[in-house]
Structure formats: C-alpha cells, structure tokens
Write a structure and sequence with these properties.
seven-stranded parallel sheet; binds uridine-5'-diphosphate; 2 domains; alpha/beta; six-stranded parallel sheet; binds uridine-diphosphate-N-acetylglucosamine; Rossmann fold; 15% strand
Length: 379
Amino acid sequence: MTSPARILVVFGTRPEAIKLFPLVAALKADPRFVPVVCVSAQHRQMLDQVLEIAGIVPDHDLDLMRPDQCLDALTAALLTELGKVMDSEKPDRVVVQGDTATAMAGALAAYYRKIPVDHVEAGLRSGNIYHPWPEEVNRKIIGAIASLHFAPTEVSAAALLAENVPASRVHVTGNTVIDALEWVTARIAADPSLAAGLAELERRFAGKRIIGVTTHRRENFGGGMEAIAEAIRQIAARTDVAVIFPVHLNPNVRAVMNDALAGLDNVALIEPLDYPHFARLLSVADIMLTDSGGVQEEAPALGKPVLVMRETTERPEGVTAGTARLVGTETAVIVTELFKLLDDKAAYESMARAHNPFGDGQSARRIVELVAHEIGSQA
Ligand code: UD1
Ligand code: UDP
C-alpha cells in the first residue's frame, strides 16, 4: 500500500477558514491523506473564531497579523515563513483558497519548491486589477501556478479556459462555502444556543425590517467607506428599519463607521460575529448590504436579497440568478436601491428567491476525489 499523501492546507483569513474547514474535515476523514494545517494568521481574532467552531487546531500558526499591516511587509513575511514550513513539512501538495495575500504567497512559496498547488475557488475574475484590489492579481498569480483549478461554477471555469489553462486541469466543483453554510445551519438546528447571542438585538428590533451590513474592501477605503457610512445613516433614519452591522476589525473600516454611526438608535455596530451567529444574521435579515465576496455567495443560497457595494463583481452568478444587485458605492444609489426593495413588494419578492448557483454542499468531497485521482494518476 502506498503511504498517505501529505497535503499542506494554507490559510490565514476568516473567509479562507470558512471555505477550507469542510475540506480539512474531508481530508482528515480519508485514509489516503494526511492533512497538515498551516495558518498564517493574517487575521487573528476573526480567524480564531472560525478555527474554534470548526474544531481545527493548526499544526503551524505563523501569527503574522500586525496592526494595520501593509501589503508588502505582509507578503514578504508570508513568503518567508510559509517557505520554512514547506521545507520542514515537505508536503506532496499544497492547497490554497481564493485570492488573499496568504493564498498568493502560499502558492508562490510552493512553486519555488516545485510542489504542486491545488487552488480552491479558482477562476474568479472581474477583469479589473483594481476591483477588487489586490485580489484580482493575487488569483491570477495563483492561476498561473496551480496544478488543479477547482472552479466553483461554469463561469469561473470558462474564465480559466479563456486564459489557456488546459481543460483537463479545470474542474467545476461548486464552492465549499455552501458546504460550510449547510454544516453550520445543521449545527445551529441541533443546538440553537450556538447562535442565541443575537436574541437581544432581535428583541430590540422586533417589528422593524432588518438590514445586515458588512464591508471591508480595500478599494473602498477612504471616500468609498464614508459614502457607505452616509448611506447607512440615511437608511437608519427610517423608523421601520434597523441595521445590524458586525464591523470588520480592519481599522480603516472601524474608524469611519464608528465616527459616522455610533450612537444611532436604529444601528447596532457590533463586533465580528462567529460563523453560527453570522448565519443567524443572514436568516433574520430582510436584506443584506455588503461588499463581501462570501456574503454574495451565501445570501443567494438562503434567498436573501443582497445589494453589493462594488463597481464590478467576480461573482456574477448571484446577479444572473436575480438575488444580487450591484449598487456601487455612491450614497444616493445605495439608498435609492435599498428603499426600492423596502417599499416595492414585487421588487423585493423577485429577489428573495433561493438559488444555489454556487454549489450543492458537496464541493469538499469532490475536491478530495479529484486530488486523490491526480495523485493516483502520477503513481
Ligand atoms: C483580507 C484580505 C481580503 C479578504 C479579507 C476578508 C488580503 C490582501 N486581503 O483583507 O482579500 O477579503 O481579508 O476579511 O489578503 N484585523 C484585526 N483582527 C483580525 C483581522 C484583521 O485586528 O482578526 C486588522 C489588523 O489591524 C490588520 C487589518 O485588520 O492589520 C487588515 O487585515 P488584512 O488581512 O491585511 O486585510 P483585510 O482588509 O482584512
Ligand atoms: N462572516 C462572519 N462573521 C461576520 C461577517 C462575516 O462569520 O461578522 C462570514 C460570512 O458568513 C462569510 C465570510 O465571513 O462566509 C466573508 O468574509 P469577509 O467578508 O471578511 O471576506 P470576503 O468573503 O469578502 O473575502
């Protein structure tokens, strides 16, 4: 019998942890693999929230987050430290997810050692290297390196083929975020206390339409964040509306939102929620207002209208399915589009239909089989 393959799974931020914990679990459960988990901790508290609920104890924790970290120092540290882990662990393959600095540096460090890289959530493209920034270039770099490209949808697979990635290397697997969402939903159903921490806000805002907000995109820092804050202030001036806004820990987000929104009766500015509580927020919200990638995938799966505060999206599937709408970052447009949904029942209902363009909850299982097949074909 051949010995199990050592798979180094590298991640560092909240969304990567959410999208990779189903894969780590699937690898752990499979005797063909020995997963080794390395977290960069590019995020600290927001990563730890996910590690805890998912029950993952990393084999390596690089603890690289620094306050208000800049991209060049972060990337340099990631490359050096991830390289050392690869030298000591000598994995057969490295898995990265998405388009963060950790994912890009993980792929590059593996490439420097000629270790094959498998890319989860491959092929997302906006076509604009500054939207989202720096993620569009991060994922193109990973795409240039990857051995196997796990595209969540046909749209992302087509983007890779258009860049001349051989079709045999591209697999449509669905997005593991749907695996994660289904898992956490089942956990909450079995144990509602996991998401009971929102109960007080739910009572306080009973009878109001709930708007769930998240925002963190670097390209929106400065004027974009201020315009978003002003839109939220205008929205919350309505007495029939309440805003629940778990504020990202990036200081560029917090400072603006605290200055503009602290103390407003209808706005709850709260700390980042752990995943069960965020899933609860998704289920009690009438509308999500976000610039997040992951929330654009989760909201359609739950039939929640989602207004996306970006100029472009690399996830057009939610827009095509009718659950997501791009509203940009101009105050007046955000407010107008949100009021339309609040006041026009037909407009709301046409968006509030559950679709699952992003997956069926089986993505991690498919990825494991594809990696096993790849290893088998090389043996
Ligand atoms: C990062 C990713 C982005 C991803 C986002 C998800 C890069 C370049 N950016 O953006 O692609 O969409 O995560 O949220 O990879 N902070 C804390 N505690 C935390 C997390 C962050 O204090 O748990 C603060 C720190 O001051 C840190 C700053 O936020 O320096 C920025 O974190 P960073 O990972 O560089 O960027 P994000 O904006 O979170
Ligand atoms: N999320 C969470 N708690 C929060 C806000 C978001 O658990 O307070 C989850 C959300 O369900 C989604 C992911 O974090 O799965 C999105 O992360 P983020 O918006 O930070 O990054 P992006 O997806 O834009 O890269």
